[in-house]
Design brief:
The protein has 252 residues and is of the alpha/beta class. The protein has helices at 16-27, 42-52, 67-81, 104-132, 152-172, 190-198, 202-211, 221-232; strands at 7-10, 31-36, 56-61, 86-89, 135-139, 178-184, 243-246.
Length: 252
């Protein structure tokens, strides 16, 4: 895969899958706009890593549920690199709970980041992507496809992302914009590492998570990043409206 001459925006690129995706696309030649709500902290570190590796990157801090931040991220891409070819809607929020136990504020936050953020970021990017014949890759979740205990609202929000991907692909296929979705399974991100570490029995928690993967291990952010890169690449030019599940066999 070769992204030379391409510009990408990766949301939620301060850690985990977003950071791995930004680093990979930069290594593949892309100029990267790193979006992170934490600004110069973790997002700035991602930029620094790309630049230290000889790549091109710039920070666009802000929350994706804020339309002004979404507009600013696209403007950053255009002002620094002159174009926008790929948008990776990776920013996401997961709070455990059932429909009874999830606090209303957490319902609102998950829907705002996972669903509204995908809408607003895609809306802001669409004119530039239309001009470039670009690609959107939405990051869903295996939770949108297979039931998970204590993830009701998160699953609903990612189910919306999967459904939205299909509709967006139909809406924009005639304009030359492809839209795909990658649904990761349980991936060893910093957030998951923290969850395991803070559990009452970290060893049992890790064993439980690994036990539901037929491949016998957790995924890595880098593995998910490669799936995202492929969905955005010229090698996948015949692919739109697709949902790519990379979950260690959890849904087979």
């Amino acid at each position: 895969m070769n992204f030379s001459g391409k510009t990408v925006v990766v949301t939620g690129a301060g850690a985990g899958i977003g950071r791995a995706t930004a680093l990979l696309l930069a290594r593949l030649g892309a100029s990267v706009v790193v979006n992170s709500r934490e600004g110069s902290g973790r997002g700035g570190d991602t930029v620094d890593r790309i630049v230290a590796d000889g790549g091109r990157a710039v920070l666009a801090a802000g929350d994706v549920e804020d339309s002004r931040a979404c507009d600013a991220a696209v403007e950053t891409a255009l002002s620094h690199f002159g174009r926008l070819d790929v948008l990776v809607n990776n920013a996401g929020l997961a709070v455990p709970g059932t429909v009874e136990t999830t606090p209303e504020d957490d319902v609102d936050r998950m829907l705002a980041v996972n669903v509204k953020g995908t809408v607003l970021m895609s809306r802001a990017a669409m004119p530039a992507l239309r001009e470039a014949g670009g690609v959107i890759v939405n990051v869903g979740s295996v939770a949108a496809i297979k039931g998970h205990k204590d993830r009701a609202v998160y699953a609903a929000s990612k189910g919306a992302v999967v459904a939205m991907t299909k509709s967006m692909a139909v809406d924009h296929v005639a304009e030359g914009v492809r839209v795909n979705c990658v649904c990761p399974g349980t991936t060893l991100t910093p957030a998951l590492e923290s969850k395991i570490r803070d559990a009452q029995d970290p060893v049992a928690m890790e064993a439980q998570l690994i036990g539901r993967q037929p491949l016998g291990r957790l995924g890595t952010p880098e593995e998910i990043a490669h799936a995202i890169a492929y969905a955005a690449s010229q090698e996948a030019a015949f692919m739109t409206g697709s949902v790519v599940v990379i979950d260690g066999g959890m849904t087979m």
